[in-house]
Amino acid sequence: MNSLEIVQRIADVEFASIVTQTDLLGVKLRILLTDTSYVDVWASCKLQGRFGIHWERRHLDGRIYRYDNFPDTDWAQVATFPFHFHDGDQNNVIAASFAPTLEQGFRDFMLFVRKILL
């Protein structure tokens, strides 16, 4: 089972109260949520441990949330760099409070999502 399949299982089982559908789409996993927003999860096939988790809500309230570890030098001042969190907006970047591994970081991120939805 690859990392996206593991994350898909976590979404389907542990977050069934907010997840309506999960689809593996090549190099990413799309997770549809009960409020019509969605979460995309990407895990690099080439770079071990590189990932991104993006919650798209612009059609609902104009917000996006993203947790990733892409070493963007624009966010080098963030204490948890290269891990960082886009909090509601692409340019509002703060230190990441989620675990630094894909599986646990995804769980932490989805707990954040569930708290907002419920």
Notes on the structure:
The protein is of the alpha+beta class. The chain has one domain. The chain is built from three helices and seven strands; from the N terminus they run αββββαβββα. The protein has helices spanning 3-14, 58-61, 102-117; strands spanning 19-25, 28-33, 38-43, 51-57, 63-68, 84-88, 93-95. A seven-stranded antiparallel beta sheet has the order 1-2-3-4-5-6-7. A hairpin with a 4-residue loop joins strand 6 (84-88) and strand 7. It starts with a helix and ends with a helix. The model has no long low-confidence stretch (mean pLDDT 95).
Distance between the termini: 31 Å
Question: Over the alpha carbons, how many angstroms does the gyration radius reach?
Answer: 13 Å
Low-confidence stretches: none
Which structural class is indicated by helix and strand composition? Answer: alpha+beta
Counting copies of identical and different chains, the oligomeric state is: single chain
Net shape: globular
- Whole-number total of structural domains: 1
Helix content, binned percent: 25-40%
Record the strand order, biggest sheet.
1-2-3-4-5-6-7
Helix-strand pattern: HEEEEHEEEH
Mean pLDDT: 95
Q: Could you describe the largest sheet, including whether it forms a barrel?
A: 7 strands, antiparallel
User: How many individual β-strands?
Assistant: 7
Which percent range describes the beta-strand content? 25-35%
* Count of discrete alpha- or pi-helical segments spanning 4 or more residues: 3
